[in-house]
Amino acid sequence: MARPEQVLLLEPQHELKFRGPFSDVVTTNLKLSNPTDRNVCFKVKTTAPRRYCVRPNSGIIDAGTSINVSVMLQPFDYDPNEKSKHKFMVQSMLAPPDMTDMEGVWKEAKPEELMDSKLRCVFEMPVENEKTHDTESNKMMSSSLLKSESSSLPPKSMSSTLDDGEVKKIMEECKRLQMEAQRLREENKQIREDDGLRMRKSNMMSSQHSSAVMKKEEGLSARSVALIMLFFVVGVIVGKLVL
Fold first, then answer.
1. DSSP track, 164-203
2. For 176-224, what is each residue's pLDDT tens digit?
3. Distance CA 230, CA 241 (A)
4. Exposed/middle/buried for 102, CB within 10 Å: 0-12, 13-18, 19+?
5. Residue 83 has pLDDT above 80, yes or no
């Protein structure tokens, strides 16, 4: 039996476009509208779950209402020659009147009750003069989504989330510590060079002193030899006179 056609209206219908640069989180929106007179359960699935964050990724759309789904692409190294193979699927089914457990409803759903629509992902790089504006808008959208999500987290999770200001302070502190380490390395190098210079001077002075001592000793020994020779000559002359 063929599956029924999708009752939800998707905007966009076939493609989810993500505009770079992709060095930060890039967010795009998917609008799901329910034009029927019954509530509709939905799920959003992707072929690359580690690359995307979807909020909300499941829920119920009341009759005659719509919902915006934020799809956040995580930062990555963009290659313009590589085509994206990522795809999304919006799966839906009519909600039972007495539904209490949505997970149980999905598990017990029959294949002929499920409806789905598929979208492919498209990556685009903006022209130079649009890059700055797109980067700022993506940061603002991601920041607002993270703040709204963190408001529903317990206090411990909220305290562990760093905002841009704290990250900037940490980066500045790291840079300061790196500069301080570099300065200490340079001072240590200078101290080693000064110690080497002092050692060379000390060696030179000690060698000069030893040379002077040796010369002095040589002078003394020469004078001693001369005195001995003088005494010997005087002794010989005195001996001849006596004889």
1. HHHHHHHHHHHHHHHHHHHHHHHHHHHHHHHHHHHHHHHH
2. 777 777 777 787 778 877 777 777 777 777 666 666 656 655 565 666 6
3. 17
4. middle
5. yes
Cα–Cα distance measured from residue 217 to residue 223, given in angstroms and rounded to the nearest whole number: 10
Answer whether residue 99 shows pLDDT above 50. yes
CA 61 centroid distance within chain: 39
Amino acid code (one letter) for 226: A
Q: Output the DSSP codes for 223-238.
A: HHHHHHHHHHHHHHHH
Determine if the pTM surpasses 0.90. Answer: no
Antiparallel, parallel or unpaired: β 115-124 and 15-19: parallel
The answer to whether the Cα torsion of 118, 123, 126, 130 is positive or negative is positive
